[in-house]
């Protein structure tokens, strides 16, 4: 059923989509934003340790729903499995208004300038598709600042000598007091000649934008914030854009495909509403912001006679180069109590090892971990401690408040065969072919990440840990909550999916604006880069299509 024409339709209300929508509304556009998930409140989360976005054993409160949303995963041994959202290997982020930003940990990193030119800096390792971004840190710098100030970031990065140039400090100081782990690790890092600083966070440390400061509770990463002190798109740009009356948000609406006319231009999208009815939303410009797995899936599911392999897929690059972050680190046991058990937990970072690791291409940041719920402590055991029984209970009693974990996201070397395809058989509840995830990590990724674990261990030893043990990486498919890279940005249409302004090469009015376009994923959590790029591209789209809009 066709609906009235709008200037733009945006698919996905996660980190990227609402920011583009906000920028277009700012330029006077009429925009429809389609989100397949619900608009939740913190009360939908109910502080359930076993049912949250970090531990979905009993389901994901912030989507997608357990039933009717499978994916297919091809293991390293070639075994093909159909997995539900709460099962390992699904690589879920979230499906709701705010996407991952409703329940995230909220670390708000800028990538470093070198992260945008990894191939020039290091050369391309065999078996990798490592490349430079077509844009630089300087191109993104004003938009990083905009994201930090419009959404609200706390922290203090002034002691980080490796950061890119910045014009303004962060709008809010770090949450205070920082706590015991900060004191201990800050001192130890300085002793080692490293440069510790306060982690930037999309979290209010003081009242900001009409919402209160963080109350330091336990239910932080993986949960929606009970007092709304965590800054996602759902409580910042989205309400502002909706207030103008130019944006319409339609929730529980699953986009089936992008429609393309006989001239090879997108004419709008076809979607299912919550009752399963099919609608056609005509639009002059279509913006895909479904996250790295679902955006690739949508482009592939939009194949037409003119584009038989899917949109933007003339050279078979859609869905390729799936990346995430390989997390490694170490645990340290201390003689005294070191763990405060107050949120958000993560406070202190170093970025000394994001580059400059001899013989390695890149590296990553290292930080103390987010606050841990008791169930998570099972993952913190040294290898000799069993998972259950009296010995495990004794270990928890002895060690729960005497351990610190330091972990970090290693920048992965992109691999062409790490990819999203459409599964030839499995379909979701709407009958749409689902994503099939396959391909290995590059061996060099594992080398770098295991070196990072050693760096973490050295830091903990310098802090006084009497016993340490490592979390090393293993081979497996990439993606995870930091999924990125599947619609690569580039100047050459034969080796990328979108151009430097994130327009799909073959189509004059289709854009991808989310983590999919990241050429590489930095040695830092990616969300602030996704947001900054969304601000940048929103502005470009408004300029490029101003005349067409009339
Ligand atoms: C528990 C957790 C902790 C995290 N912590 C951090 C952190 O500390 N720092 C950090 O940088 N990152 C963190 N992340 C990751 C971060 O949230 C993601 O990198 C980011 O949200 C990705 O943004 P995106 O726009 O690419 O996709 P998303 O945020 O995933 O948004 C995509 C949206 O599109 C919707 N969608 C998809 N397909 C369709 C369709 N066909 N039709 C309609 N709607 C569709 C989805 O439902 C979703 O809401 C965390 C994530 C989680 C879940």
Q: How are the SSEs placed, and which strands pair?
A:
Layout: E1 6-11, H1 17-26, E2 31-34, E3 71-74, E4 80-83, H2 118-122, H3 137-152, E5 154-156, H4 180-191, E6 197-201, H5 237-243, E7 247-250, E8 254-260, E9 266-272, E10 278-288, H6 292-300, E11 325-333, E12 348-350, E13 366-368, H7 389-399, E14 403-411, E15 419-427, E16 433-438, H8 443-462, E17 467-471, E18 510-512, H9 527-544, H10 546-549
Parallel strand pairs: 1-2, 1-10, 2-7, 3-16, 10-18
Antiparallel strand pairs: 3-4, 5-6, 6-12, 8-9, 9-10, 11-14, 11-17, 12-13, 13-14, 15-16
Helix pairs in contact: 1-5, 1-9, 3-9
The chain binds flavin-adenine dinucleotide.
Can you characterise this structure?
The chain contains 10 helices and 18 strands. Strand 1, helix 1 (17-26) and strand 2 form a beta-alpha-beta unit. The longest helix has 20 residues, at 443-462. The strands form 3 sheets. Strands 1, 2, 7, 8, 9, 10 and 18 form a 7-stranded mixed β-sheet that branches. A 7-stranded antiparallel β-sheet has the order 5-6-12-13-14-11-17. A 4-stranded mixed β-sheet has the order 4-3-16-15, with helices on one face. The protein has one domain: FAD/NAD(P)-binding domain (3-Layer(bba) Sandwich). The protein is of the alpha/beta class. It binds flavin-adenine dinucleotide. Flavin-adenine dinucleotide binds at residues 11-16, 34-37, 53-54, 93-96, 99-101, 103-107, 221-222, 254-255, 289-292, 294, 298, 481-482, 514-515, 525-527, 530. Flavin-adenine dinucleotide is lined by residues 11-16, 34-37, 53-54, 93-96, 99-101, 103-107, 221-222, 254-255, 289-292, 294, 298, 481-482, 514-515, 525-527, 530.
């Amino acid at each position: 059923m066709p609906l009235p024409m709008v200037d733009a339709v945006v698919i996905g209300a996660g980190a990227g989509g609402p920011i583009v929508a906000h920028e277009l509304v700012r330029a006077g556009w009429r925009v429809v934003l389609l989100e397949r998930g619900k608009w939740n409140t913190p009360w939908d989360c109910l502080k359930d340790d076993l049912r949250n976005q970090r531990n979905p054993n009993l389901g994901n409160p912030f989507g997608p729903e357990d039933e009717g949303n499978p994916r297919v995963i091809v293991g390293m041994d070639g075994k093909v499995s159909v997995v539900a959202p709460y099962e390992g290997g699904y690589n879920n982020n979230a499906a709701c208004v705010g996407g991952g930003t409703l329940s995230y940990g909220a670390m708000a990193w800028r990538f470093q300038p070198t992260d945008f030119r990894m191939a020039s800096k290091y050369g391309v390792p065999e078996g990798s598709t490592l490349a430079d971004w077509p844009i630089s840190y300087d191109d993104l710098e004003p938009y990083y600042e905009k994201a930090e100030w419009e959404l609200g970031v706390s922290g203090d990065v002034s002691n980080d000598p490796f950061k890119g140039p910045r014009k303004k400090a962060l709008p809010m100081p770090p949450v205070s007091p920082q706590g015991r782990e900060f004191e201990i690790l800050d001192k130890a890092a300085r002793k080692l000649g490293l440069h510790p600083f306060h982690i930037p966070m999309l979290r209010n440390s003081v009242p900001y934008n009409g919402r209160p400061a963080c109350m330091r509770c336990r239910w932080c990463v993986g949960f929606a914030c009970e007092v709304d002190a965590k800054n996602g798109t759902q409580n910042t740009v989205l309400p502002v854009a909706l207030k103008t009356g130019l944006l319409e948000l339609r929730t529980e609406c699953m986009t089936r495909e992008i429609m393309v006319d006989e001239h090879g231009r997108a004419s709008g999208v076809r979607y299912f509403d919550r009752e399963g009815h099919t609608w056609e939303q005509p639009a002059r410009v279509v913006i895909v912001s479904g996250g790295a797995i679902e955006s690739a899936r949508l482009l592939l599911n939009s194949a037409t006679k003119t584009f038989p392999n899917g949109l933007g897929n003339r050279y078979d690059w859609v869905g390729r180069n799936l990346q995430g972050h390989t997390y490694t680190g170490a645990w340290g046991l201390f003689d005294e109590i070191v763990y405060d058990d107050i949120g958000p937990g993560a406070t202190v970072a170093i970025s000394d090892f994001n580059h400059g690791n001899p013989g390695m291409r890149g590296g990553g940041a290292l930080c103390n971990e987010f606050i841990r719920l008791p169930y998570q402590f099972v993952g913190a055991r040294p290898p000799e401690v069993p998972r259950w029984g009296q010995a495990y209970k004794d270990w928890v009693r002895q060690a729960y408040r005497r351990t610190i974990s330091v972990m970090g996201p290693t920048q992965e070397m992109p691999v062409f065969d790490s990819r999203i395809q459409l599964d030839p058989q499995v379909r979701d509840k709407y009958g749409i072919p689902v994503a099939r995830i396959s391909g290995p990590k590059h061996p060099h990724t594992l080398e770098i990440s295991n070196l990072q674990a050693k760096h973490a261990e050295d830091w903990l030893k310098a802090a006084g840990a009497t016993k340490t043990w490592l979390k090393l990486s293993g081979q497996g498919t990439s993606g995870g909550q930091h999924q990125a890279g599947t619609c690569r940005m580039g100047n050459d249409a034969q080796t990328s999916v979108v151009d430097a302004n994130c327009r799909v090469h073959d189509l004059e009015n289709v854009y991808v604006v989310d983590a999919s376009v990241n050429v590489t994923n930095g040695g830092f959590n990616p969300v602030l880069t996704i947001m900054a790029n969304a601000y940048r591209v929103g502005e470009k789209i408004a300029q490029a299509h101003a005349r067409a809009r009339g």
